[in-house]
Amino acid sequence: MLKQHRKPSMFVRRTIENNEKAGIRPNKTYQSFVAAAGGHRELNFIKKDVRNYITREVRNVSELQDEKEFEKATCEYFGDVISFDTTYNTNTYNMVFGSFIGVNQHSQSTLLGCALMKNEDIQSFKWLFECWLCCMGGNAPKGILTVQCALMQRAIEACMPTTIHRWCIWHIMKKIPSKLNDYKRHLKIEHDMSHVVWNSHTKELFDRNWNDFLIKYESSIEAQFQQVYTHQKFKKVQAQFKGKVNCITRSMNSALGYSVYEVVEQVSNSTFNKFAVTHDSVAAQVKCQCLLFESRGILCRHALSVLSFERVNKVSSRYILKRWSKNVKRRHTHQEQPRRASVGAKKQEVRRIGVSFAKYMRICIGIRGAHSHFAPRL
Questions:
Q1: What is the pTM of this model?
Q2: Which of 100, 131, 274, 330 is most buried (CB neighbours < 10 A)?
Q3: Binned average pLDDT, 10 residues per bin, the chain of 378 residues
């Protein structure tokens, strides 16, 4: 009998399942079918089909249920602090592999769940976290470590509001060599930064060491903006300087001081945006494809990355708009307004009339006194 013709009926499958639960061996189960049918030739399946059905269907379902219960128990014991990682991609289908990892009692990594994701948007992350929480009995972890991803952070805040979310320091420190290769002192900067991160045992000590580190390696261009711009505007400029860490600058071509660069900005783990930036070292001009300076009046992180790549220590005054300067002087504040001038003139006139009236009253009183003194004699 060919394999495609061997198919146990629903009654046979149900009997196999019941006998398996009762502890009856597959051989005894098959012999009962043979006896009931009047011989093995009357059956449309063989003994191997009974064993295969038990292995593939009955025991597999039981194993899946046991595995699910085991994962729930594992999450209950070791799911207080977990790590969610999406840095692995499948080559064939270009899908992101996300894994929920905990640490067991032997300090070993234990898998608490995994998923394949086609898109890394906020809706996909929300769906994944909700499904994982449902499988784990709805118990959210106390803390979760992830890579630097704003969309993932928003999804965690929406699905697990009580969970403390932190970025994985290992992923952050791993990016430092690639981000600092454009700087002349990148080895020294990397060493000092690692010292601040790993040797600051309290928050106060870290804040103090980090501020000292920023002062030591402060960008001259950033200091130029800080000296001129207002505090509110400098915060927006500083956000662009911070965004440089997600940008990688590549020189495309250069001739006679005119260079074209491609700046690749990492938006998420698998999303990268490319921008074309031109730099003219002779005219001290830089222009980015995103047109942030043309629309908002501040240099973008892509242009700042190119300026750092070119070792530019000071930007041209054309990129420091006077409208954002804290030293701006409005002309109308130095001119006396007509209304105020008229009010001042009226006050002076009233004061002069008051003084004259007081003198007039003193003269009148004096004349009256003199008149009363000479009246009887008249």
A1: 0.47
A2: 100
A3: 67 79 80 81 77 68 55 71 81 80 85 86 92 85 88 91 90 77 70 87 86 72 83 87 85 89 84 92 92 92 89 86 76 50 66 74 67 47
- If asked whether residues 240 and 134 sit together in one domain, one would say no
Neighbour tally for 165: CB within 10 Å: 14
CATH number for 116:
3.30.420.10
Answer with the one of 34, 51, 71 that is the final residue of a domain.
Answer: 71
Distance (Å, rounded) from C-alpha 373 to C-alpha 149?
103
Selection from 211, 178, 208, 174 nearest residue 194 by Cα: 174
For the chain, the straight-line distance linking the first and the last C-alpha, in angstroms and rounded, comes to 164
Instruction: Note down the domain range covering 135.
Output: 79-167
Q: How many domains does the chain have?
A: 4
- Radius of gyration (Cα) for the chain, nearest Å? 41
Which residues neighbour 176 within 8 Å (Cβ) at sequence distance 6 or greater?
190, 193, 194
Domain shared by 197 and 145, yes or no: no
Q: Is residue 345 part of a domain?
A: no
- Is residue 294 a part of any domain in this protein? yes
Query: What is the DSSP-derived secondary structure letter of residue 58?
Result: I
- End position of a domain, from candidates 134, 149, 167: 167
Please classify residue 258 by burial: count the beta carbons closer than 10 Å to its beta carbon, then call 0-12 exposed, 13-18 middle and 19+ buried.
middle
